[in-house]
Specification:
The structure holds 2 protein chains of 2 kinds. Chain A is of the alpha/beta class. In chain A, helix 6 links the parallel strand 12 (250-253) and strand 13. Mean pLDDT of chain B is 93; it is low at 1-19. In chain B, the strands form 3 sheets. In chain B, strands 1, 2, 3, 4, 5, 16, 17 and 18 form an 8-stranded mixed beta sheet that branches. In chain B, strands 6-7-8-9-12-13-14-15 form an 8-stranded mixed beta sheet, sandwiched between helices. In chain B, strands 10-11 form a two-stranded antiparallel sheet. By secondary structure, chain B is α/β, with parallel strands linked by helices. In chain B, helix 4 packs across helix 5 (229-239) and helix 8 packs across helix 10. The chains are: A alpha/beta, B alpha/beta. Chains A and B meet through helix 14, helix 21 and helix 24 of A and helix 1, strand 11, helix 10 and helix 13 of B.
Chain lengths: 986, 431
């Protein structure tokens, strides 16, 4: 005991003092220096994850490594610690935490209207951009959290104020309780931080959406570059900070596989290599992650199993969520197998202490232990630009290291000490002798059999005499053993304590008898403990990992559909062209295109599908859809031309699949109708299984959503102070923006310096005829107004969508040359649709307006064929005309009619095979093809349903069998899925 | 264009005035009417080709093959189809006009247990939405209050009336109750996580129903000293004069709800919704529960469900031997109720026989609502509530009405919408 304490003091004091600030006065003693060394000898030195030196030496002075390895001489003034073959590792680094920086409280909501303006002055126009925040000013070292992190092996952590879209700078801090911030803070501006999440300190409305946050970040960088040129007439402390921090490592908290790619895309625009903080689901789209070529910080918050014991509750859990439990622990392995450079983090863990358990699970799923060590040492050091001072046991680095009994991630390995800046922190007593084994205990005149087993540092005791057991307890610390055992029959307890001598196998000490008399006992070792059998706990065997699908949700395909050469034989072909409806006709599909239409065509190697009695049409095109997107409205401003739906396309939306089952092949995903000037559209093909990029049309015509009426004047929700509140104001919004866009464009073209403004860029595209407007519209007055505004500025409105009173101004529309995309029969849902009539499409068509029937609804979109048929009932359209309203007409409105919308040689093979006349209520889409690949097939669908049932029950069985650490399981849940419409704000 | 002309011809008769008022209800049938030469869809599964129907004083006096009896007014409908008027159960027609305009909405009173709330007195017989039902063949509806736990009392109306008294076909026919859910949305506004999760209040919530039922029953057994309108309204459930409409979707909720109602002595239970009813058909049969299935045109509740589950639910239940009808509840339910025939048509696409599908919105609906003595089929002695259609009324291409009668009264097929159509078609010279 005495010896140990002395040693401890020797190690402590000199190093501690050596680090005190030299110019500080000292009044509690005299000021003396200690320049001694400490050498750890006979250690298995893991200099780096890949460089191991057996029986090496680590020499430390003043908290830093002076030398490591072999073949250097040890100075005379060195305290030597013989590690007897124990292992030395660099301690871990976590580069993404909120350690010691409390997140601010959410600002309460004020008033009934959203706040549109910033609350700050002298800073950026948006409160959520806060690059000027310095986390160091909020930092308060938390020794309790530090202790927890040190227990997990961490020596240095990086922290910042996790709040806002641009968050300012962070702090790099050693988990050293001694010596104060002056010593432990390694960097007070360790990096800069970004996310898609707004600050809780402000209620400023913009951005309300992910795409808005993306646009805001882009504009922030454009503004930074502009400000850096010194052209601004006003001061902006945010932009100045951004400029000042531009060379710091930039961490982006993306938090999801899709957002990883989004963040990387923003970085690419401005030559910033974001270090991306991922979401743990990167394994699902690993190819996309690879393509980012970014470096990552990866959380390992693997989901817990659900409590699936009640089948009525279990049924609510989606297959994708069941799968996530099974598949997510492979994330580190998959990233590492794909050569992605990443650090691990405790970020996102509900309990930081579960880090080891989660890491264990990753190993079980095949994650390489050397890679894990890199991800906790050298890689985070690189990410933080700290490779010269952290991450390895090389000369010159901080003396941050772990002393372990064996290889670091082995289950039986004990971590004894975690040294930080040369300061020792004991986790398990290294000098504690292993006393496990069997003993004969002679106490109070009787002989007992005593066995000590379990962990060497926390042994368990068992006392027996023959078959009789004596309940017993034991503590073992500082080489003192203290135990008690009870004779149950006599209800008598014996207390014993003894000092363990290093050199002897048996021990003896003080025994207190039940009657209070003090005597002594001896314990003679009869047998050494055998190597403990490994815990045969469930979960130690490698689990079965279920395969991914494209996309990785229910109805995803194991293999992505491939283009085939197909001959549809003997179909009734609805061409949507002048050719009309052709009976008994063949259609040959080759290389994703419609190769030939005719009678008795030669298959020429193509697979023949007998379409006798069936109808073949072009795929349906929905001009107005809100499926397959993560967000629909950027409602924070009355103009949001800067946002793009193409930024937030969601290829995993089950509605894509359901639309295919309704014969839909192409859609325009429109921005919502919250603003007079909405966001840019995405035109996609419903290629279920492809990623977002694979869905988007290549060389897509450019579209933007505009909106009129009740929604933009916010009539139906609680908002009273955003301009415009009337239709009169709506006109002025347009006039003002187009005036400004015109001036902007002129300035830009003049070659003079200008501030790049993404919003005005987009509006200028409209003025220049490069971008088309699809405008949400209801009543005739406003429809007329927008046409007049457009005419004033010299362009044409492309499409009025919804256009429920189009029939009242159909003549004017025809004259202007605008198309109409309307509902078949919707009305009575708000005041402005009072005069909506189902005859609208027929009247507009007869007046010469190109007319389409659209959905704006994830349910109606999957039976647009029926909606088209309603124009036969309401307005006596012919079947051919009716069918065009969901095929070639929307294709024309979308400027895609050269590629899709009709069955015509040379066009994309986007085809649907129907069981019946496609306009009939009785018709079913049997096969839906896009670019020559079948993305929906009734037969395949049937097989998929069965496969889903099977996989669900398999996963539920696996969950029932899993015995997790504490036996606790997650309550069943079903994610909230939002069915978007124009008015949805999320 | 033939179709167009037909409709136009009827319209022109009534277009003389420019008022924006609703269609004037038709007068009582004064002369006998004979419709002849049509395919008659009786509504019970049978079809009569080239048939004739005679009705007088609002009642059918003859249905059958070609007839030589010429009496009263003879309408030649050769080649057309005659259907019983379609019936929309659990509807809020006339209780709301414009969804986004609160002053026009009367469908949901506050309070949890309010069986005494009566829909009939709020029913707006002059609703523009109501009149838009008729050109699609929807001529009768059950008007049901919504919301809360026990929402109130419904009545059944015909859709061509001066006022609610005039409209009533069956007054206070049933009580509508919404059974609690075992799984519910996280109430994020009180700080819960978003998404669906188990409803821990489920036992408490269901207990509230059993308690209310028990109290209502106890109330009925005494000559109570104090009036309790709520308990009073419940009495018809116990003597069988009223039906109980139980809104429930999940398997467990349905079992719990039906059991609770039966245990409380409710005579006739009708399940409304029944998303998972197909999993417990024997149970429902055992308790003589018929089903008004969810709107066919909805999306599945779960991503993993069959994409066409809502389409085929009525067929699954019918195939299992249950009595099934259809509702239109959900988003924009009032204006969408006119699509009721197409909901039935959609089920045909799933393999149901056409005449069987027709029953879903005619005879089955009438039986479920307890008005089958007068409505739901074209039989002698029943009400002449029917319409003449150019073709198949379940398919939108051919759902083109030329005549419609409610209790023998020939009603207008014009609406606010057809009038606007003609006004503008005329403006452009399209007519």
């Amino acid at each position: 005991m005495k010896k140990y304490t002395l040693l401890g003091l020797l190690l402590f004091l000199p190093l501690y003092m050596a680090q005190a600030q030299v110019y500080f006065p000292k009044n509690d003693g005299v000021k003396e220096e200690n320049n001694n060394y400490i050498a750890f000898t006979n250690a298995t030195l893991h200099i780096t994850p890949n460089q191991v030196i057996p029986f090496g030496t680590l020499l430390v002075q003043h908290g830093k490594i002076v030398a490591s390895g072999k073949g250097f001489s040890i100075p005379a003034n060195t305290v030597i610690v013989d590690l007897e073959g124990k292992h030395l590792y660099p301690s871990f680094i976590d580069c993404y935490t909120a350690f010691g920086v409390e997140k601010p409280k959410r600002e309460g909501n004020r008033g009934r209207s959203p706040q549109y303006d910033a609350s700050r002055e002298g800073f950026y126009w948006n409160d959520h951009i806060r690059p000027e925040v310095k986390s160091i000013e909020k930092f308060k070292y938390n020794s309790k959290d530090a202790e927890e992190l040190r227990k997990l092996g961490f020596g240095v952590i990086n922290t910042h104020l996790m709040d806002g879209i641009a968050r300012g700078t962070g702090v790099l801090v050693a988990l050293n309780d001694e010596g104060g911030d002056a010593i432990r803070i390694l960097e007070d501006a360790s990096g800069q931080y970004f996310s898609f999440e707004k600050s809780v300190t402000s209620n400023q409305s913009y951005p309300t959406s992910l795409m808005g946050a993306m646009a805001l970040l882009r504009q922030m960088y454009y503004d930074r570059d502009w400000y850096a040129k010194g052209t601004s007439e006003t001061k902006d402390l945010s932009l100045e900070a951004l400029i000042e921090n531009r060379n710091l490592p930039a961490f982006f908290e993306a938090g999801d596989k899709g957002n990883d790619v989004r963040a990387d895309g923003i970085g690419n625009l401005f030559n910033i290599d974001y270090i991306i903080v991922g979401g743990g689901n990167e394994y699902e789209t690993i190819e996309n992650i690879k393509q980012t070529k970014a470096r990552y910080v990866i959380p390992i918050d693997f989901p817990e199993a659900f409590d699936v014991s009640d089948p009525y509750f279990a049924k609510y859990i989606a297959l994708e969520d069941l799968r996530e439990w099974n598949q997510a622990p492979q994330n580190p392995k998959v990233l590492s197998d794909n050569g992605i450079n990443f650090a691990l983090t405790t970020f996102d863990l509900k309990k930081v202490s579960s880090f080891s358990e989660k890491l264990e699970k990753a190993f079980l799923y095949g994650f390489d232990k050397t890679k894990a060590l890199e991800a906790l040492t050298t890689i985070p050091a690189q990410l933080l630009n700290q490779s010269n001072s952290l991450g390895t046991l090389e000369k010159g680095k901080w003396a941050n290291f772990l002393i372990t009994s064996g290889p670091i991630f082995e289950k039986e390995t004990i971590v004894y000490e975690n040294w930080v800046q040369g300061q020792k922190y004991v986790l398990n007593d290294r000098n504690l002798k292993d006393i496990r084994g069997s003993y004969t205990l002679a106490a109070g005149g009787k002989n007992y059999e005593m066995s000590l087993s379990g962990e060497a540092t926390k042994p368990k005791i068992e006392v027996k005499m023959g078959e009789t057991e004596f309940p017993s307890k034991l503590t073992y610390e500082n080489n003192w053993i203290t135990f008690s055992f009870t004779d149950k029959d006599a209800n008598e307890t014996y207390l014993a304590t003894a000092k363990i001598a290093a050199e002897e196998t048996s021990f003896s000490g003080r025994l207190v008898l039940p009657n209070g008399l003090e005597t002594s006992f001896t314990a003679i070792k009869t047998d050494t403990a055998k190597a403990e059998e490994k815990d045969s706990k469930e979960g130690t065997k490698a689990p079965e990992i279920l395969p991914l699908t494209y996309p990785n949700v229910g109805y995803g395909y194991r293999v992505k559909p491939k283009a085939q050469n197909i001959l549809f034989k003997n179909a009734t072909v609805w061409t949507s062209e002048a050719a009309g409806i052709l009976e008994n006709t063949d259609v040959l599909v080759k290389n994703g295109k419609i190769e030939k239409i005719g009678k008795n065509l030669n298959a020429g190697g193509a697979t023949v599908i007998d379409a006798t009695g069936k109808h073949l049409t072009a795929g349906i095109i929905d001009e107005h859809s809100h499926i397959a997107t993560l967000t629909i409205n950027e409602a924070g401003q009355n103009s949001s031309a800067e946002v793009k739906i193409s930024d937030v396309v969601n290829p995993e939306d089950i509605n894509i699949y359901r639309n295919l089952a309704g014969g839909v092949t192409s859609i325009q995903i429109l921005h919502g109708s919250a603003n007079p000037i909405g966001g840019r559209s995405a035109l996609i093909k419903l290629k279920w299984g492809e990623d977002a990029n694979g869905l988007l049309y290549k060389n897509s015509p450019k579209f933007i959503k505009f909106a009129l009426g009740e929604n933009v004047k916010q009539s139906n929700w609680q908002s009273f102070d955003r301009f415009p509140q009337t239709r009169m104001g709506v006109e002025q919004v347009y006039v003002n923006y187009f005036n400004r866009a015109k001036e902007y464009d002129a300035l830009k073209k003049s070659g003079k310096p200008y501030r790049y403004d993404e919003e005005l860029e987009v509006l200028a595209e409209i003025l220049n005829g490069e971008r088309f407007i699809s405008c949400h519209s209801y009543v005739q007055s406003e429809i007329n107004m927008l046409m007049k505004v457009a005419e004033h500025f010299g362009f044409k409105v492309n499409t009025f969508t919804h256009i429920l009173e189009g029939y009242k101004v159909a003549d004017k529309m025809a004259q202007h040359g605008v198309g109409g995309s309307t509902f078949s029969d919707w009305w009575a849902y708000k005041y402005e649709v009072n005069d909506a009539i189902p005859y609208n499409a027929a009247i507009m068509t007869r007046e010469g307006v190109t007319t389409a029937i659209n959905s704006d609804d994830d349910e109606m979109s999957r039976r647009l064929n029926q909606e088209a048929a309603k124009t036969i009932k309401y307005g006596a359209m012919s079947e051919e005309e009716a069918w065009k309203m969901v095929t070639i007409n929307p294709a024309q409105l979308l400027h895609l009619d050269d590629r899709v919308g009709s069955v015509k040689e040379g066009k994309d093979a986007d085809l649907v095979l129907w069981s019946d006349n496609p306009l009939s209520i009785y018709a079913k889409a049997e096969k839906t093809m896009i670019d020559g690949s079948f993305y929906f097939d009734l037969e395949v669908d049937k097989a998929q349903r069965e496969a889903i049932q099977k996989e669900r029950s398999k996963l539920i069985q696996m969950m029932l069998e899993e015995k997790s650490g504490d036996g606790k399981k997650r309550s069943p849940m079903k994610k909230e899925k939002i069915n978007f419409e124009c008015e949805t704000i999320n | 264009m033939q179709i167009f002309k037909n409709i136009a011809a009827i319209v022109i008769i009534g277009i003389g005035f420019h008022s924006w008022a609703q269609q004037t209800p038709a007068p009582t049938q004064s002369e006998t009417i004979l419709l002849q030469g049509a395919t008659i869809h009786v509504g019970d599964g049978t079809v009569i080709e080239n048939g004739a129907i005679v009705f007088e004083n609002g009642t059918i006096v003859s249905v059958g093959g070609p007839t030589t009896i010429k009496q009263g007014r003879v309408i030649d409908v050769t080649g057309k189809h005659i259907y019983p008027g379609f019936i929309a159960p659990v509807s809020t027609l006339g209780l709301g006009e414009i969804d986004a305009v609160r002053p026009t909405l009367d469908e949901d009173e506050i309070g949890e247990f309010i069986p005494n709330i009566r829909s009939l007195i709020a029913y707006n017989a002059e609703s523009k939405v109501v009149e838009s039902m008729r050109p699609n063949g929807v001529l009768l509806a059950q008007i049901a209050p919504q919301g809360g736990a026990i929402s109130g009392t419904s009545s059944i109306v015909q859709l061509d009336a001066w006022n609610w008294e005039d409209a009533a076909v069956k007054v206070d026919d049933g009580i509508h109750i919404h059974w609690p859910n075992t799984f519910r949305r996280g109430r994020w506004w009180v700080g819960e996580e978003r998404g669906w999760k188990p409803n821990n209040d489920y036992p408490k919530d269901t207990e509230a129903f059993t308690r209310y039922f028990a109290n209502a029953q106890a109330y009925g057994k005494t000559n109570s000293t104090s009036e309790n309108e709520g308990f009073k309204a419940m009495q018809g459930l116990f003597d069988g004069s009223k039906r109980l409409y139980l809104y429930a979707q999940g398997e467990k909720e349905i079992i719990d709800g039906v059991t609770a109602c039966k245990n409380a002595g409710v005579q006739q239970v009708v399940l409304v919704g029944g998303y998972e009813a197909y999993k417990i058909i024997p149970f429902l049969k055992q308790h003589h529960v018929s089903v008004i299935a969810n709107r066919v045109h909805t999306t599945p509740n779960s991503d993993d469900d069959d994409y066409d589950l809502p389409y085929k639910l009525p067929k699954l239940l019918t195939d299992g031997g249950l009595l099934v009808s259809l509702d239109a509840l959900g988003q924009m339910e009032r204006m969408n109720t006119r699509n009721l025939p197409f909901y039935a048509g959609q089920v045909v696409g799933q393999g149901m026989d056409k005449e069987e599908a027709l029953k879903l919105i005619t005879s089955n609906a009438a039986k479920i609502l307890g008005i089958d003595d007068r409505y739901g089929t074209l039989e002698v002695g029943k009400s002449a509530t029917l319409f003449v259609c150019d073709g198949d009324a379940l398919d939108m291409r051919t759902n083109l009405l030329s005549h419609a009668f409610i209790d023998g009264r020939e009603i207008s097929l014009e609406t606010h919408q057809t009038r606007l159509w003609h006004r503008y078609a005329k403006k452009y010279g399209q007519e």
